[in-house]
Fold:
Amino acid sequence: MFEALGRSLARRPRRALALWLVVTLLGVAVALVGVTGENLFERLESGDTPVAGSQSTEGNEILATQDTTGESVTMIVSGVDLADPGLATTMAGVNATVSEVTGVASVIDPFILPDGLQSPAAAPLLAKGGDGFIVVTELAASLTEDEAAEVMDDVVAALRTAGGTLTAAQPEAETLIGSTSLIVEAITDQVQQDLQTGEAVALPVALLIMVLVFGGFLAAAMPMAGAIASIGAGLGVLYALSFALDVDASVVNVVTLVSIGLSIDYGLLIVSRFREELAAATTPVEGGAASRRRRAESPAAQALVRTMATAGRTVAFSALTIAISIAGLMVFRPEILRAIGAAGLAIVLIAVGTALTLVPALLMLTGTRLARPGVLARLRPLRKVLATTADVEADAGIFSRLAERVQRHPWIVLLTSAAVLVVLALPVANLHMRNSGIELLPASAPQREFVRELAAEYPDAAGSDLVVVTQTTLEAATAWTATLAGVTGVDDVEGPTALGSYAVIGVDAAGTDPGGPQASALVRELRALDPGFEFWVTGQAAGQVDFTDALTERAPLAVTVVVIATLVLLFLMTGSVVVPVKALLTNALSLAASMGVLVWAFQDGHLEGLLGFQSTGGIETYVVALVIAFAFGLAMDYEVFLLARIKELYDSGLDNDAAVRLGMQRSGRIITSAAAIIVVVFAGFVFGDLLVIKEVGFALAFAVLLDATLVRLLLVPATMTLLGRWNWWAPAPLLRLHERFSLTH
Structure:
């Protein structure tokens, strides 16, 4: 099949090139312009990770359906003299101006109350510090979503004008404007900015690395073309997916960075193997039908067919292992994980599609020019550098020498490598998963400053840590508040208040972190109560408890699916039952180490200053799931790259140790180069400001770095040396099965 694809691309390379050009441009156009009046970024969700059927989700749905008010916009005014008699006059004009905006239902500030600042109702509207107040503008509940967005813009503009009026009256006055819609907008805007930042950092550095790997720009441009096509097509796929699932804003960046990494990864392997086969295609061949067919084909066509039959098959197999790992996300209940899983699967298909069609087509069009030294190689200052870094296929070199040293002391290498991984994994024992909202934005973001100021100076307006929705009478809910106040971990109880046929009670947790372990423990304590009527506990801690429980519930199924599928696929590739088990164990240990470092860096906050973030005291719940899925898939990616070469050499007649040494030499440079590029791509997103993207970028960059060095260069050759010929053992019935269904070259 792969040889046939290679011959087809050799005959019609321009057709594949034209197809990808159309797909890329169409994907970009659809994502940026849209087809329904909304582009991709306008369709993104943000700040909420609901779990269908969970108590917090059901409670929030009740609150949403029973609430008959429209969305509100709040302006915080600080640094003013409340005793200034002219302030009330100024605010009367502000109130009138904002009230005139079509679609505004009401405007409330402490100055319009009957007794003004002395009214008991004014207390929640006045700052605790005594130098500020808030203005709350409520939109009409009858507005459609589009109408509400337009009115929101008009209200914000009017409030900003009002802020200027206040500053003119009292020069020390400062204002902050915030709402739920503005918070979501801030996060989605940050996604776009981080996407541009990440690409601006990652793509140029990745290109530089590939120039060093290939010794010139021409070969380096091939994988880069695949990455650009994958980005364009991937954005179009995400736009289409947004009509089937709620796509969180962070999914765009996660999928984009994985798309870039995989496309370059696979393209690198294809280009490298093509250059190797191009050199072999120019050597004389003996007589016979096969040799006559080779002589009838151009060297580039011969090289492309052989490349597709070897590296092309490896790329397809590698993509399948990653797809299986990512597919594990789709068994979970949270929609954000299913969206990432679906988008990830699509991106893997696009990446392998560019590697198996677009990159080979470009290689065919360039032909034998890739065999000639590039312009850079002719420059004397760079010649020595490129002689060291550019890919060569010598049977002896740095990687074969490293493998030989490992084979002299395999037990020492094995135990030392395992000890390092275990030490790195230790912090994962204290992992705390949380669902953050505004904390995802940088500390300097205006909307985060707004929320912080509101909580500090206007606690009554900021709302309670937990909201308990009860399906009972107001009297029964009032009687139950005494029980709630006595629960360990409860700091304060507010309400109840009537909401349609329900009664709502606010509960504040002891401590200052509404998403911390104390708040999560309180959620479980409250839900264990039996008041004699139905109730729902909602809030940040409730949401993350439900998300964590959903992960725990389906994790065994996801792990089982991924493990069984991986074992089967690696067996079909190697014909061994030992190698797949070893691969799973080493990759699991490497993954645990990567998660441990993530906890140490972000949850414990040891890299706050270096990476520019504020620790939330935990790791985002869905980050844990997707890092495990993607990091495991990428680890299997490099495992396949290495095993494919070792198995190919072992089947050619070399003994186990020689196959390991030569396989390391021939694949080590590509694995290391591909890993360096992926590390750069992922690390590029650490320079963004959105916390969740920082966590994902850092975790995946470190996971790839650790896997491509300690694991792939030391631990794997050590274990394969110790196992010897037992690496390739399988029971006789399975060997016969492998002979029939094998996926070898």
Remarks:
- Strands lie at 72-78, 104-108, 132-139, 174-178, 433-434, 466-470, 490-499, 502-509, 535-539, 619-620.
- The longest strand covers residues 490-499.
- The chain has 25 helices and ten strands.
